[in-house]
Amino acid sequence: MSIFGDIVNKLFHKAKPEAQPPAVEATPDPAVAQAAAQAAAPAAAPAPAPLADVDVAVVMDQFVSESGQTLNWRTSIVDTLKALGVDSSLDHRKQLAKELNYTGDTNDSASMNIWLHKQVMQALAANGGKLPADLAA
User: Fold this and answer.
1) Each residue's pLDDT tens digit, 39-60
2) Which structural domain range is residue 112 located in?
């Protein structure tokens, strides 16, 4: 499974523990998802997004609370991954960056982390997750 897929599955299962795991695209691309949604015929019923009706902030805040750590998932990809119980090591973040098509220098971890956080939040929204306005932009 992809790293992003692992993130989505953890959010989905925390929000809807009785539900089946969602099918997640390995390399989500918000632009592609938006173009596909716009291209869909009005009469055709679109497939539900994996995170439809999942309030990401509520679920992430619950993960943070249960972690017993002080984590700022709203601004830090490392804290986001830690809250979810996903490996937050530099190597793992580099893998996630590759998965999400990062074209920058992965040795510049500060820039990569900022980009990763933004991309993960956008991809969660593209997969149906409800985000606070400041994170959905």
Assistant:
1) 443 444 445 566 777 899 999 9
2) 3-136
> What does R_g of the chain's alpha carbons equal in angstroms?
15
Overall domain count for the chain: 1
Q: What pTM does this model have?
A: 0.75
Contact between residue 102 and residue 27 where contact means Cβ atoms under 8 Å apart: no
Residue carrying the six token digits 């793992």: 92
Burial class (CB in 10 A: 0-12, 13-18, 19+), 83: buried
**Among 72, 124, 71, 84, which residue's Cα sits nearest to residue 100?**
124
Yes or no: say if 118 and 137 are a contact pair by the CB < 8 Å rule: no
- For 81-120, the pLDDT digits (tens) are 999 999 999 999 999 999 999 999 999 999 999 999 999 9
Tokens 């989905």 correspond to what residue? 12
* Whether 80 contacts 73, CB under 8 Å: yes
Question: 37, 46 in Cβ contact below 8 A?
Answer: yes
Which two structure tokens, joined as six digits, stand for 118? Answer: 């933004």
